[in-house]
Amino acid sequence: MVSSQVKIGFIGFGNMASAMADGWIASGKVPAGHLYACAGHYDALVERTASRGMNACHDASEVVTASDVVVVAVKPYLIEGVLAPVAGLFAGKTILSVAAGWKSEDYERVIPGTHHLSTVPNTPVAICEGVIACEAAHTLDAGEYTLLNELLGLLGTVVEVESRLLSVAGTVGGCSPAFIAMVIEALGDAAVKYGIPRAKAYAMVSQMVAGTAKLQLATGQHPGAMKDAVCSPGGTTIRGVAALEEAGMRSAFIKAIDAIEG
User: Fold this and answer.
1) Which domain holds residue 140?
2) How far apart are CA 184 and CA 201, in angstroms?
3) CB within 10 Å: which end of the chain, N or C, has fewer?
4) Where does the Pyrroline-5-carboxylate reductase dimerisation domain start and stop, copy by copy (predicted)?
5) 14 is an annotated ligand-binding site residue
6) Domain containing 177 — which CATH number?
7) Which of 117, 157, 115 is nearest to 137 (CA)?
8) pLDDT, position 4
9) Which of 123, 147, 149, 126 is nearest to 136 (CA)?
């Protein structure tokens, strides 16, 4: 099966599930009509799916029945209660988990014998620029593994990690967009302080962040070397770097990850 033929169902249709749906639709490879979803509030779900050309389902059993790939996108504490009643419907289905903290061993405990892969994506999947951390341990066969990698590859960069690293990989990839948004907001405020209109400030800063990231990916340069390349001896940039170091910028980012993982 190829991505254009597969039918994908979401159990839960919150921010992450809708971002994935938007990304698949935007890719042009997965027709909106091949996407199904159920959620706690059906009326609101109908509005959200209809605007995308998707199909609204009343419950998890309807989603599983309609789909080839089932995306588990409910809160972790709800998973067991949602999946156990429909466990008998998963024969021939592929399960893609996007629930933080749930690994292969957890799914084997709740719905043993099913074919599943645990992942942690981030919200830029909505524009096919995401990072998707995938657990190396899974129960997929070769064909299913190829299909899910193809589907996830449409949404961004897929990074496979050991089970013990899935949490921190998901934290760095999944939570950091919030941190970078704060950086964009702060630099935008600084630009506004000196007279640049806010919309232009955000456009400049966001493009700077995107361009810097793309440059690193394209060249493979160490971030420190990229920083050094902008810092002339006695120049303006090195003074800004010194101020950030004095303010503990690096330590603050590391502590943010510690706060989540700790």
Assistant:
1) 8-161
2) 9
3) C
4) 165-259
5) yes
6) 1.10.3730.10
7) 117
8) 77
9) 149
Does 103 count as an annotated binding residue? no
Q: Residue 117: enclosing H or E segment and its boundaries?
A: strand 115-120
Q: Is 74 annotated as a binding residue?
A: yes
- Residue at a domain's end among 112, 144, 161: 161
Q: What is the pLDDT of residues 159-188, one digit of tens each?
A: 999 999 999 999 999 999 999 999 999 999
Q: pLDDT for 97-155, tens place per residue? A: 999 889 999 999 999 999 999 999 999 999 999 999 999 999 999 999 999 999 999 99
Q: Cα-flanking dihedrals φ and ψ of residue 128, to 5°?
A: 65, 30
Position 1 confidence tier, pLDDT thresholds 50, 70, 90: low
Q: For the chain, how many structural domains are there in total?
A: 2
CATH number of the CATH domain containing 147:
3.40.50.720
**Considering the domain boundaries, does residue 74 fall inside one?**
yes
- Who contacts 159 (Cβ-Cβ below 8 Å, separation ≥6)? 131, 132, 133, 134, 169, 173
**Could you tell me what percent of the chain has a pLDDT over 90?**
97
Q: Is 122 annotated as a binding residue?
A: no
- DSSP three-state, residue 135: strand
Whether 76 has a binding-site annotation, put simply, is yes
Amino acid 58: pLDDT:
96
Q: Is 121 annotated as a binding residue?
A: no
Q: What is the pLDDT of residue 100?
A: 85
Q: Is the domain of 117 the same as that of 50?
A: yes
Residues 108 and 205 placed together within one structural domain of the fold = no
Establish if 183 belongs to a structural domain.
yes
Task: Check whether 12 is labelled as a binding-site residue.
Answer: yes
**Do residues 120 and 144 touch, judged by C-beta distance below 8 A?**
no
Round to the nearest angstrom and report the end-to-end CA distance of the chain. Answer: 41
